[in-house]
Structure prediction request, 198 residues.
Amino acid sequence: MEKNTHKLVILVGSVREGRFGPVVSSWVAEQAVAHGGFEVDVVDLAEVDLPLALPAAPPKFAGVDYPRPAGMAGLTQALEGADAFLIVTPEYNHSYPASLKAAIDWHFTQWTAKPVAFVSYGGAAGGRHAVLHLENVLTELHAVTIRDGLAFPNYFTAWTDGRPDDPQAAGYAKTMLDQLSWWAGALKHARAAEPYPA
Prediction:
């Protein structure tokens, strides 16, 4: 029986100079493609116009008339068409980058009733503080966060040639992607059967 595929958007959250995010997201995208359950689209927030000043009316109420910058159109389209999300984030001062907060806040319905998984990296905590904050924010937007993510502590000494040194990392990634695929399918069917009561 052929496996159904879901549209997965991988968000590269860091826009900092010299960032490690593209290395992590490249490896994660490779795992997602190998998994076979996804059509993978990597969206790098460093390439998106993300102003911090927001319009007066929130996107929840403005809907399709929400005045986003033209340079954000690709991001909005990707989020709108996604069945699932995977956010790659570093940890800055026990939280996630402003670039991710801006990307989230410029949108609302694009996240609703869709699953989100997390891959984080950082110092001793491996970015877990950032993920805890993201889970809280995305729950407010009616997204469904996946419990089993990936965290890479001390990434600066734990990766070689673009790959994690931990031999179990690929197995952890498969577990995360299996859960993400299950939720993507379940929520896609649910949204098609009946509009989500947001």
Remarks:
- The chain has a mean pLDDT of 96.
- Strands lie at 6-12, 38-44, 84-90, 115-121, 144-145, 150-152, 159-160, 163-164.
- The longest strand covers residues 6-12.
